[in-house]
């Protein structure tokens, strides 16, 4: 990687993880294209940490996510598993549906009727001596993605796929044969799966489909933790994952670690646990940060089995992932991890539908892009391992997340003004389903504030004016933020970063914001089309709120009559496993008792 980037390999496991990941990669792509289009100098965030360069068989340069993605059969819609960037006949043949031509040929010969068959990517069966083909209907491409056809390239008259080179943010796109049309804004009703709004080109080795389970329908669902663990115990899927890991890892010069985006509520919690175990065993010393994702709030009116499975999967996932990860952070807009539903979290300047994965995942991706900034900077001593070590002392491997989206800076306000107005309240909305953080203790925290104009970093009061607070006496924005955090949590270990790079809000990001200017400032009467970029504050905290959350989770599990949910146990979990789970949850909860801090 150019410039000695400290590479990170991302694993994206599950369908809601796909939603969050699609927004995440779209944001990286938007930042790359803005820098290329406006000819800006390199920003603070290094894209080579997440992306890799490559070349097609015809010599064109590509720039694709360093990503391994696992999802279920039927989740790709119109997205091609093999991607269009490296398209060639041999590759198409290699990834086509597996057809047992040898067996068919023998059956035909035995019937005395030799036939020739060709690859049509359809399964073949023999009925009464006749060859029958069964064709599966193609998924129509979402209208929003139609404009990507001109980006992928065209099949020229000489039979060669002419691919347009993908921008890496370091110069003009070298191959363009037509202007890329302005993207449409997708409607919520047009989004069925995450691939309906993914605008980023993926490498052919990125997508790994679990064919034995279905995304849609009631049959063959990946519902339980034990099922997920069993997937990566099968040689077929384990070897496929290992091969893809080796492909990406071996081309890295300074691999700092792995980030796992993993669904916690379904069987992918088991897939994530086995994947983390594999990474821990094979790549010792590398950072492994896991983001456990839960979709929007649920209701008690749902099927009881789904709620019980969600509780069990979340508990097993948190315990097993924390055993093999450097750090684990649950991410959700719900108010609770337990069985009793709580209202979704509220953002003062953001309006969203908590029942839509498209909305919820956009918000979580915004927070994720901000709180991961420390280990993606061009110039920063913070690596994934360093970040985890700062937060996970004394066995505290689970952390909480929070964000202020957007950060509520008003016109003519400075950073000290805004922070002083917040008073003693927590300046961010909690995003880990751990309830109200009021009155809780923070042991350690990593805070990132991005997108403020440098003129707003310090007080704008005229000389001689009495200072409203100590924050107004600070001479740099970094000092303002550090001083504020020290005032809020004087006994916590704190790390803070102040970045000028805002979060880009461009299609397909949903229209969630109100009362914002073009620069993301809070206004009473915003202009039409406001909010192309926003300031965001994000935080990771080792918090005493986890003592209550994990303890309550253990109490709810202890009350379950597992004989009613034998199907969960039949999926590969034994009674002794549940006993160990309860013990581990209680031990983990005790790590977060108030009074246990670095400063004691």
Automatic annotation (TrEMBL):
KW ATP-binding (keyword) present: no
Location of the DML1/Misato tubulin domain: 187-377
Example of a GO cellular component annotation carried by this entry: mitochondrion
Main location: cytoplasm
One Pfam family matching this protein: Tubulin_3
InterPro entries the record matches: DML1/Misato (IPR049942), DML1/Misato_tubulin (IPR029209), Misato_II_tubulin-like (IPR019605), Tubulin/FtsZ_GTPase_sf (IPR036525)
Subcellular localization(s) per the UniProt record: Cytoplasm; Mitochondrion
Family that this chain belongs to: Belongs to the misato family.
Name of the protein: Protein misato homolog 1
Organism: Cnephaeus nilssonii (Northern bat)
Organism placement in taxonomy: Eukaryota, Metazoa, Chordata, Craniata, Vertebrata
């Amino acid at each position: 990687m150019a410039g000695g980037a400290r590479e990170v390999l991302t694993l994206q496991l599950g369908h809601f993880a796909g939603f969050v990941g699609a927004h995440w990669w779209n944001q990286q792509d938007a930042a790359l294209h803005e820098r290329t289009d406006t000819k800006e100098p390199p920003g603070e965030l290094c894209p080579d940490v997440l992306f890799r360069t490559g070349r097609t068989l015809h010599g064109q340069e590509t720039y694709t996510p360093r990503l391994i993605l696992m999802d279920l059969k039927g989740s790709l819609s119109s997205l091609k598993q093999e991607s269009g960037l490296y398209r060639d006949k041999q590759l198409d043949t290699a990834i086509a549906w597996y057809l047992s031509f040898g067996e068919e040929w023998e059956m035909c010969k035995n019937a005395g009727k030799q036939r020739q068959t060709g690859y049509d990517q359809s399964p073949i069966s023999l009925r009464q001596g006749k060859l029958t083909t069964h064709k599966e209907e193609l998924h129509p491409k979402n209208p929003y993605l139609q404009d990507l056809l001109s980006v992928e390239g065209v099949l020229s008259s000489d039979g060669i796929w002419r691919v347009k080179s993908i921008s890496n943010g370091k110069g003009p796109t070298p191959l363009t044969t037509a202007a890329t049309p302005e993207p449409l804004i997708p409607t919520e009703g047009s989004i069925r799966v995450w691939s309906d709004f993914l605008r980023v080109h993926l490498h052919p080795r990125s997508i790994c489909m679990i064919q034995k389970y279905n995304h849609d329908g009631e049959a063959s669902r990946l519902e339980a933790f034990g099922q997920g663990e069993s997937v990566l115990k099968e040689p077929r899927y384990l070897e496929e994952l290992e091969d893809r890991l080796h492909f990406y890892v071996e081309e890295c010069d300074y691999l700092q670690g792995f980030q796992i985006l993993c669904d916690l509520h379904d069987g992918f919690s088991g897939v994530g646990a086995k994947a983390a175990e594999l990474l821990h065993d094979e790549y010792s010393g590398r950072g492994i940060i896991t983001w456990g994702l839960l979709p929007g709030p649920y209701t008690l009116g749902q099927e009881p089995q789904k709620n019980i499975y969600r509780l069990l999967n979340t508990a097993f996932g948190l315990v097993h992932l924390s055993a093999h990860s450097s750090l684990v952070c649950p991410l959700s807009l719900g108010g609770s991890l337990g069985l009793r539903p709580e209202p979704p979290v509220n953002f003062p300047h953001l309006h969203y539908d908590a029942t839509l994965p498209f909305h919820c995942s956009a918000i979580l991706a915004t927070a994720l892009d901000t709180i991961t900034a420390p280990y993606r900077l061009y110039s920063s001593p913070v690596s994934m391992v360093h970040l985890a070590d700062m937060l996970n002392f004394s066995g505290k491997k689970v952390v909480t997340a929070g964000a202020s989206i957007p950060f509520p800076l008003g016109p003519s306000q400075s950073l000290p003004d805004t922070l002083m107005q917040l008073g003693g309240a927590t300046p961010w909305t909690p995003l880990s389903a751990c309830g109200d953080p009021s009155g809780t203790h923070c042991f350690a925290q990593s805070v990132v504030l991005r997108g403020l104009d440098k003129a707003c970093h310090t007080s704008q009061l005229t000389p001689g004016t009495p200072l409203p607070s100590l924050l107004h006496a600070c001479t740099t924005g970094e000092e303002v933020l550090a001083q504020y955090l020290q005032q809020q949590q004087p006994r916590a270990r704190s790390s803070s970063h102040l970045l000028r790079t805002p979060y880009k809000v461009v299609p397909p990001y949903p229209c969630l914001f109100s009362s914002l200017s073009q620069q993301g400032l809070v206004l009473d009467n915003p202009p039409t089309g406001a909010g192309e970029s926003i300031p965001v504050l994000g935080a990771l905290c080792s918090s005493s709120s986890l003592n209550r959350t994990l303890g309550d989770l253990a109490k709810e599990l202890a009350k379950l009559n597992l004989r009613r949910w034998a199907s969960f146990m039949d999926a590969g979990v034994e009674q002794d496993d549940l006993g160990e789970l309860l013990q581990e949850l209680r031990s983990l909860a005790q790590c977060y008792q108030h009074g246990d801090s670095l400063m004691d």
